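ok new one. same drill as before - structure tokens go in, u give me an amino acid for every spot. 505 of them this time. try not to just spam alanines like last time pls lmao
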């Protein structure tokens, strides 16, 4: 029964932790499948995406973590130029270098979108979505700069470290990089993974003790493996904890001296609190391992004494009888059972011991109340929700305008939107993005879009119509035509070409 419980816990409760650990490897295998033979006639077929990805990660770690600077695209192109010549012996022209470097950079950044990895969460009984990026960007001094994400650093460190290295030590290295880069929220997540690893080692300690209670030989092997892969790193882990605590204090002192933002200070305080909890749990793990060592010594000593006794292995005897196909050999199994001594005696002197034996106090376990798991909403999910709402809002206004007027210019539509919703509609970048997608096709039929949308614009038009109700717009179709030479001068925005939208049905 206990084995079934451990199995269920391993499968269900630890599944999410395993998926979070797997996610950092997912983009690598996605990118390693990139085939350069299908690009530009295969003239860059000698390149290997797996090697290039690892080289780019090492370059960004060097620039972001050790030199503490962001990377511009020109610096990335210069680095890739050496890769082509030194590692693949390709003599490319300046134009070819720019072409293949841009192609590789877009693939690694996944066109600015996160890599999405889905898995089934057995505790919540639903599918979960994991998003991660390898290279991210930000604008600094009106220049787009790029930097490596913490997930990519963690992946690179995992591939670089030896097999039996401490997972806590690896996480400590990643935590140091995040503190130096002032990524305090990401550091808090790393500490949570450290706490998860400490909890895993505690569970493994109990499992080792259970194995030793059943099979001392296998238990000793499990104990030695546990000591070599966990206990041996305690001294280094304690030093790393102290180093990171000093880094946090320095960051806190600097933020308070510079009059840091309240949110940043709050992130540092949360990071410090989580690290203190991790240090306490790590010390508890050390005490538990010392207790395990003492109990292991007792079990091994008892097992050595029991090995001196004469014993008979019934299982082995039965196996030998089956291999030899000799039923007479079963006599050695059955004869001890037929001559059992069922008479039992009780030593009267043991009564005094029973009466004088002290009663052990009952140990009560600590009651832990149920805690609600906090669900995180990622920034890209908020962006997708905003874009969807804006697109559907603009499309409904466009369909209403087409229903009112048989033919309407884009300039008239924009002016109507400005009168109804103010100048802020002209500052909305989603408004112009949707207009660009609308001009990608000459004619739109609402019923066909509802049945099978073919373009990005038709997909959002189908969603908007379904939300508003299909009866009002059923049978509606319109054509988008270009007005050559006519432009729209939009205040507070830019100049765009004018088009005409004509209702056909």
């Amino acid at each position: 029964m206990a084995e079934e419980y451990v199995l269920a816990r391993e499968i269900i409760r630890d599944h999410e932790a395993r998926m979070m650990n797997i996610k950092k490897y997912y983009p690598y295998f996605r990118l390693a499948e990139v085939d350069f033979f299908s690009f530009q006639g295969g003239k860059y077929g000698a390149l290997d995406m797996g090697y290039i990805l690892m080289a780019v990660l090492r370059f960004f770690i060097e620039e972001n973590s050790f030199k503490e600077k962001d990377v511009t695209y020109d610096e990335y192109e210069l680095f890739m130029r050496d890769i082509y010549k030194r590692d693949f012996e390709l003599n490319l022209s300046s134009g070819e270098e720019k072409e293949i470097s841009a192609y590789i950079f877009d693939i690694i950044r996944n066109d600015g979108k996160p890599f999405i990895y889905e898995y089934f969460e057995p505790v919540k009984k639903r599918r979960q979505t994991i998003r991660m990026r390898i290279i991210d960007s930000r604008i600094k001094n009106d220049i787009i700069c790029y930097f490596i994400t913490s997930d990519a650093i963690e992946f690179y460190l995992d591939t670089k470290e030896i097999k039996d290295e401490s997972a806590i030590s690896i996480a400590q290295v990643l935590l140091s990089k995040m503190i130096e880069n002032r990524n305090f929220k990401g550091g808090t997540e790393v500490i949570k993974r450290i706490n998860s690893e400490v909890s895993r080692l505690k569970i493994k300690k109990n499992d080792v003790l259970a194995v030793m209670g059943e099979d001392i030989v296998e238990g000793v092997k499990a104990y030695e493996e546990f000591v070599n892969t966990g206990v041996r790193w305690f001294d280094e882990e304690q030093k790393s904890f102290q180093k990171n605590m000093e880094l946090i204090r320095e960051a806190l002192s600097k933020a308070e001296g510079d009059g840091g933002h309240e949110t940043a200070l709050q992130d540092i305080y949360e990071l410090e609190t989580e690290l203190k909890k991790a240090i306490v749990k790590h010390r508890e793990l050390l005490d538990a391992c010392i207790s395990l060592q003492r109990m292991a010594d007792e079990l091994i000593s008892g097992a050595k004494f029991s090995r001196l006794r004469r014993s008979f292995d019934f299982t082995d005897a039965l196996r030998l009888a089956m291999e030899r196909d000799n039923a007479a050999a079963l006599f050695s199994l059955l004869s001890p059972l037929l001559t059992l001594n069922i008479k039992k005696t009780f030593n009267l002197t043991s009564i005094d011991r029973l009466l004088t034996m002290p009663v052990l106090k009952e140990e009560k376990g600590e009651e832990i109340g149920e805690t609600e798991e906090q669900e995180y909403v990622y920034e890209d999910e908020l962006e997708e929700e905003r874009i969807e709402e804006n697109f559907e809002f603009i499309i409904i206004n466009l369909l209403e305008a087409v229903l009112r007027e048989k033919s309407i210019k884009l300039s008239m539509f924009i002016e109507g939107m400005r009168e109804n919703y103010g100048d802020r509609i002209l500052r909305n970048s989603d408004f112009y993005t949707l207009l660009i997608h609308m001009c990608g096709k000459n004619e739109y039929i609402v019923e066909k879009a509802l049945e099978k949308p073919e373009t990005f614009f038709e997909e959002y038009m189908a969603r908007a119509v379904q939300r508003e109700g299909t009866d009002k717009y059923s049978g509606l179709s319109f054509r988008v035509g270009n007005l050559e030479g006519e432009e729209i001068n939009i205040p507070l925005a830019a100049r765009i070409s004018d088009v005409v939208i004509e209702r056909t049905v």
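The mean pLDDT is 76. and btw The longest strand covers residues 477-489.
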